[in-house]
Amino acid sequence: MAVAASTSMALFTPRFPATHFSVFPYLPPRFPTTSLSFKGLSESRRSSLLLVKATSSEDSSGVDTNELIADLKEKWDAVENKSTVLLYGGGAIVAVWLSSVVVGAINSVPVLPKVMELVGLGYTGWFVYRYLLFKQSRKELATDIESLKKKIAGTE
Length: 156
What we know:
By secondary structure, the chain is mainly alpha-helical. It is built from 6 helices and no strands. The longest helix has 27 residues, at about 80-110. It is extended. It starts with a helix and ends with a helix. This is Cyanobacterial aminoacyl-tRNA synthetase CAAD domain-containing protein. It is a multi-pass membrane protein. One of its GO terms (cellular component) is chloroplast thylakoid membrane. It is found in: Membrane.
């Protein structure tokens, strides 16, 4: 019986130390925060570690929230079609939510995200070749962007 026990123990004892061939990565030991000790630190270093100074100044370069709110209120009162602005804002929020749902649905299909990635890479390559590679096509792109800006601003 003793021979059987020793052979079964020999089957389960590792040949190499467990620290060298562990499946889990090495993690440093955890220290509880209540038992932290400063024995090795000098008194001056200990006091400099624990020193905290809070200051406030009235002339800080931060943003004045009252001024910001007053400015936004003034701009909102200047808007004539408030319902149109709210409708466009709500439509933008719904469009972002809907596009998030569509992207999530596409990502759930196993092969489709890789196909879409290839389509995106192909389009990016075509765009670089068509508009960015040569000087003449860069000028063409710049004029197209300027004309689009003018159409959006309503100056054209």
